[in-house]
Amino acid sequence: MSDWRFDGFPGRVLKVNLSDGLIEIIELDHELLISTMGGKALATRLLVDWDTTEEEAYQLVHPVTGGSDVARHPSTPLLIFTGPFQGSKVGSAGRAVVCTRSPLTDIYLDTYIGGNWGHDLRKAGFDGIFIHGASQDWVRLEISDQNVSLIPCPELVGTTTWECEQTLVESGECMAIGPAGEKGIRIASPLTAGRRAAGRGGSGAQFGFKRLKAISVKATGVHRHADEVNLGDAIKRQRSEMGIRRRNGDPFYSFGTSRGTIYASENSRMPTANYTSTTGAMTVMGTKEVVSMLDARQLSGEHWHESLPDAKQSGCCTPCPIACEANDRPEGVKGKPKYRNRVDRPEYETLAMMGSNLGLDDSLAVMDGNDVCNRLGLDTISSGALLSFVCELEARGWSPWPESKEFIFGDASLPVRALTALVNGGGMYDVLAGGAVAAARWVEKETGHPATELVAHCKGLDLPAWDPRGKRGNAMAYMTCNIGSSHMRAGYKNPTGLPNASAVDLMEELIESQNSIVIRDSLILCAFAQGATPRDIMIDTWNAMTGSSDTWEDLMDRANQQWTTARSWNIAHWDKLGLNPRDEDYLSHRLRKDPLPDGIAKGLVSFVDDDDEAACLDEYYRLRGWGLDGRP
To answer: What is the pTM of this model?
Structure first.
């Protein structure tokens, strides 16, 4: 058990050098903690201030694209941090942030993982972990309060995430990679609690590059807060609002995100057949001719629950009254099933990317793809993007691989078969291990076919199942996000309409939302609870925890600094590669130049035209106080 050094903060970082096995506990200044708020902003500051990346990292060549591969170098830092809300009774705060250089995009990455792992790391007396170097042999990191050790683990090599967690159950909460991360597959993710993943950007491959199989945490410590009375009042207000929403029948509290397929398809936003449409329309590849329609409702959570009447809502991240998770209850299994196939209800992004984007419209069929990703440790979003890309290559006759003939839209067996083969490697799968964007570049170079026109991404990060061609302003949220096309870094308060009108007027709101979400991701609160946790509750909770007397505007200023710091870190990287920051912000060809074939957004792309796109970027940069070249 370890006492916290400050109100609201343990005040310590665990620093681990895997190359020499050195473990240090570094004490942080109180001013640094307050000025960064913890979580994402603290991790970003230390990523920059303590950056261990060596110059020779820029000599590494990506095995698929031939471009830079800095992320693969042992000196690349890997950070896993918590925020002030972890280890507390704040609802929906079972989170932690993984911050590193993305193995998928080679730029800044912050990605979030649920479960109780983050709670226990903070209770053990650490704000976060800073890892650098690479072990010669496979190891795991074991934390028991302030007792920390690196343990060789050859017996865990090759195990799935589920098997690894079960093996280490006596060591506390466990975050682990599966075979995909071990192999350095660029869309790999670490998982905890069987299904909670730090999904985006391939952070699981970063674990693999470092030969770090798992991190387990066991804690007996307790939090330290400045004003327990006012903190309790703020939490009570949050829980009351959550209760009201549940009693009023908010569908999110019944179906989580899984109802999204209905909304997304009606609003021209649901990826279908590799983003060739967004309504469920299946077209003749290379044309706008619609030949059939998928049933978005059959792909939804409603259909899933109707088909599995014994399924029940359940919680995963303590303490959380939302219970966004649901599981089937097979006969003979008591309580919530864990580490079992075909029991978990997939979330919207998985239903879309592993469902409609592969030509499937059965939420039960998507369970198999969801399960294989969880076991192997793969991001369902990028896995769906990768498989759908090969399906379109095959349908167009552009594929250079004989074995891709089995990649067919509508084949429910494809995800399990292909993703298992991806982890086994060899042949085409050595190319696909780089992800969809890298594979597209390889195919285009090898065949001359314009394969890069088939992938939907920004900055190399696959689009997250919400197409910007169906919503005004969405494209700019993707383009200006520091990690690439993430749907979790911005949002608009009201419907914005279609992108047949300019989004220039939305840029001020976009920046405000980005900064406010930095606050959410630094304190760290689950995005699902943001509506029930308005600004007054957030700031009252922060002040009660830390003893501060800050205003919301104070935190927004700190959030703005985080956004600029991450942007500057990316620009320093692009400068070394001779890349133009403004050019790096553009969406891929499919989203800019390929009009939708049907639905309410028929004929539209992400902007009115190129001039509108330029005007939106100019206004965003101006409001951020940056130059027109996108430099702070």
So the answer is: 0.97
